[in-house]
Amino acid sequence: MFEILTPLAHDAGALALRHFGNLSQSAIAAKGPLDLVTVADQEVEAMIIAHLRDAFPDDGILGEEGGIIPGTSGRIWVIDPIDGTFNFVRGGPQWAVSIGLWDGSKPIAGIIHAPVMGITLTGGTTDAPALNGRILPPLAAYLPDRGSVGVGLGRAIPAAERLEMLRFLTEDAGIMFRCCNASTLALLEVATGEVDGHIGYGESVWDVMAIWPILTALGAVSTLDWSKTPLTTKLQFVIGKPALVEACRSLAPS
């Protein structure tokens, strides 16, 4: 599978790079407040879809920009062509191509390619997680005296709830937080050990599908039950090292 996905993700990243830093204002549109889409997002998604349909004709496809293409296999490829479009437009390096695979009940494989940062992360239920080809070790133990999490602050969750989440982290739990405006890269930091977990408040399925099976293969647990989660819903979850997830469990829906 990754003999197909890896060159595809790299080609998609190269296409995005041709637009990076060269977008005119007419090539950028707003889908909502602080939610941007560019011609680069659309071209990259179209290219990925075309290649996936050739390689896996029976599978469905769900793209952030184009909606769902039905399939017959029960599997669905979930694409975020440029996760971190806001960063992309502003000229920042924290954006990535994200391609994940859903088997009908859970995420099972994914690839994330961040071309400016020189990062490619792959893995899933049958493929050991690897960063630029190097097999990653399992997640280390959680150390509460230096706890750190990434946070996603989507507008689908009311502002009061987002602020309460940040208050809980800093005052009640004593955990540092960081936000990079690109969910895939924030979650990638769990895999590399830079943070202990991630708290998602309003992410979409395409933001997390590729990284999710990689993290679970490394030993991460979560509060999210994928068997009860529609692919169209906005997500609210905690994922990461087991002790971290337990410490923050109150932040996720019961």
List descriptors.
254 residues; alpha+beta; Fructose-1,6-Bisphosphatase, Chain A, domain 1; D-Maltodextrin-Binding Protein, domain 2; 2 domains; eight-stranded mixed β-sheet; five-stranded mixed β-sheet; 8 helices; 32% helix; globular
Q: Please, could you describe this protein's structure?
A:
The protein has 254 residues and is an alpha+beta fold. The chain folds into 2 domains: 1-135, Fructose-1,6-Bisphosphatase, subunit A, domain 1 (Fructose-1,6-Bisphosphatase, Chain A, domain 1), CATH 3.30.540; 148-251, D-Maltodextrin-Binding Protein, domain 2. Helices cover 32% and strands 29% of the residues. It has 8 helices and 15 strands. An 8-stranded mixed beta sheet has the order 4-3-5-6-7-8-9-10, with helices on both faces. β7 and β8 form a beta hairpin. It is globular, with a radius of gyration of 17 Å. 44% of the residues are buried. It holds the Pfam family Inositol_P. It is an enzyme of class 3 (hydrolase). It comes from Pseudorhodobacter antarcticus. Keywords: Hydrolase, Magnesium, Metal-binding. InterPro entries: Inositol_monoP_metal-BS, Inositol_monophosphatase-like.
Summarize the structure.
It catalyses: a myo-inositol phosphate + H2O = myo-inositol + phosphate. Mg(2+) binds at residues 64, 80, 82-83, 207. The chain is of the alpha+beta class.
